[in-house]
Design brief:
The chain contains 19 helices and 14 strands. It has 445 residues and is an alpha/beta fold. The protein is globular, with a radius of gyration of 24 Å. It has three domains: 2-192, Rossmann fold (3-Layer(aba) Sandwich), CATH 3.40.50.720; 202-288, N-(1-d-carboxylethyl)-l-norvaline Dehydrogenase, domain 2; 291-432, Rossmann fold. The termini are far apart. Strand 9, helix 14 (328-338) and strand 10 (342-346) form a beta-alpha-beta unit. The protein binds nicotinamide-adenine-dinucleotide (NAD) and uridine-5'-diphosphate-glucose. Uridine-5'-diphosphate-glucose (UPG) is lined by residues 121, 149-153, 206, 209, 213, 247-249, 251, 254-256, 258-259, 262, 317-318. Nicotinamide-adenine-dinucleotide binds at residues 6-12, 29-32, 35, 70, 83-86, 98, 101-102, 105, 120-121, 149, 151, 153, 257-258. NAD(+) binds at residues 30, 35, 86, 121, 153, 261, 325. Substrate binds at residues 150-153, 202, 247-251, 255, 318. Pfam families: UDPG_MGDP_dh, UDPG_MGDP_dh_C, UDPG_MGDP_dh_N. Belongs to the UDP-glucose/GDP-mannose dehydrogenase family.
Amino acid sequence: MNIAVIGTGYVGLVSGVCFSDLGNHVTCVDKLKEKVEMLQQGEVPIYEPGLKELIEKNSSAGRLKFTTDLPSAVKDADIVIMAVGTPSLPNGEADLSYIMEAAKEVAAAVNSYKVIVTKSTVPVGTNEKIGNLIRSYTTESFDIASVPEFLREGSAIRDTLNPDRIVIGTESQLAQDMLVKLHGPLTDNIIFTDVRSAEMIKYASNAFLATKISFINEIANICEKVGADVTRVAEGMGYDKRIGSSFLKAGIGYGGSCFPKDTQALIQIAGHVDYDFKLLKSVVDVNNDQRYNVIRKLESILEDLSGKTIAIWGLAFKPETDDVRDAPAFEIITSLLQRGAKVKAYDPIATANFKKIFDHPDVKYCKVAEEAAHDADALCVLTEWREFQEISLHDIQSWLKTPILIDGRNIFTEQELADTEFAYYSVGRPSMNKGVREQSPILSF
Ligand SMILES: NC(=O)c1ccc[n+]([C@@H]2O[C@H](COP(=O)([O-])OP(=O)(O)OC[C@H]3O[C@@H](n4cnc5c(N)ncnc54)[C@H](O)[C@@H]3O)[C@@H](O)[C@H]2O)c1
Ligand SMILES: O=c1ccn([C@@H]2O[C@H](COP(=O)(O)OP(=O)(O)O[C@H]3O[C@H](CO)[C@@H](O)[C@H](O)[C@H]3O)[C@@H](O)[C@H]2O)c(=O)[nH]1
């Protein structure tokens, strides 16, 4: 089949590349000329394991092309997939200007029957609006479909090629048949729904996963006070098949390009139909506060942070990506600077992206982990990069001015800490706290 993919962000690029790998002819379109030129030369604008190799393979097989010429790509396509951004507006609603603009451009180019698929995450009712808009531009026949995307950054290719499920929301049998042909090689687990339900499945899934994270983070906060270990609690909960073990890692809260914006958007979607989504509002509040535990823990040891140098390891919102959108590191570093601290920061691959948005005279971006830790008053780990886990705590201790370690992602173990002198705080593991507080708080009933 011939596929046009509009937008070469994570979703557009990865799904376009994967569909070409399945033998389809795919043209990926972006309006950013520089991005397209990079891709044409085999350079990849994002860090995603395995992506470069797959682009090379399918480009040289002649199945994958990159262009700024949207009309030609649409004219040649049987299926048009829209995967442009839907970022947050200041009030939390999804900004639909990019998707509506893309839909207009697609409409103007439609020359024969097409299935027009939205993979971008869009509020319920958006696909219908897109359909109406296209209808106002063309008399050619077309069908719309909502096929939400569930890939995660860092494992985007694996997720796309081995999805848990594919959701196809369309009212048209022909569109459904064509989309089954496209996605059939990926999984047998294809769910057919109406368009609105497909749109809602995406928001509900992200909101539920965010809820699991805020839930376990609150359990972790209580564990710290009652002397339980959240990693054992999560393990014990996770064996229950009804609960499941994933997304129960306590830490400094979720970030990234999706959970923060999609939870806010769902609160707005509910608000538009006079529904106060209290649970999700709390999930967001808990998440926004969780990152400040790093500051509270630092202050409980160092008291005044003014004039102190704090090392930060990890700027990306999660490992295996250079994406820093809504990374907790922004608020944590801002908060340190407000308290008069200086920051030395290191990330294996996300530094350039972070620095582009956050250039500050009191933040020094370092080329290696040791440089950031060297002579610092404390070290905070904000992203669980494997590289950090492989560094010996004895080395870290020797680099720091004072051995203070706030482990925001629970990457170090009790054995590793054993004969070090760290004042150590992690998340929800009070028995591992060293040199900062008594081991088992006295509980009064
Ligand atoms: N990032 C993820 O992991 C992920 C996963 C699932 C779903 N989503 C959803 O998918 C959508 C895309 O997210 P992303 O992170 O891949 O996008 P992104 O914002 O990183 O990139 C979007 C791209 O679309 C291009 N674009 C915008 N308007 C265009 C137009 N009219 N014509 C051609 N190109 C155009 C932009 O130049 C940009 O390169 C969002 O709705 C997001 O919520 C993202
Ligand atoms: O147990 C966990 C799991 C995740 N996180 C954090 O949650 C955020 C999101 O992580 P993850 O879901 O792995 O990354 P994303 O790439 O943002 O993927 C999410 O958002 C995408 C965009 O909508 C969806 O497609 C995916 O299904 C959904 O997992 C990150 O900050 C993680 O550190 C935790 O704190 N604890």
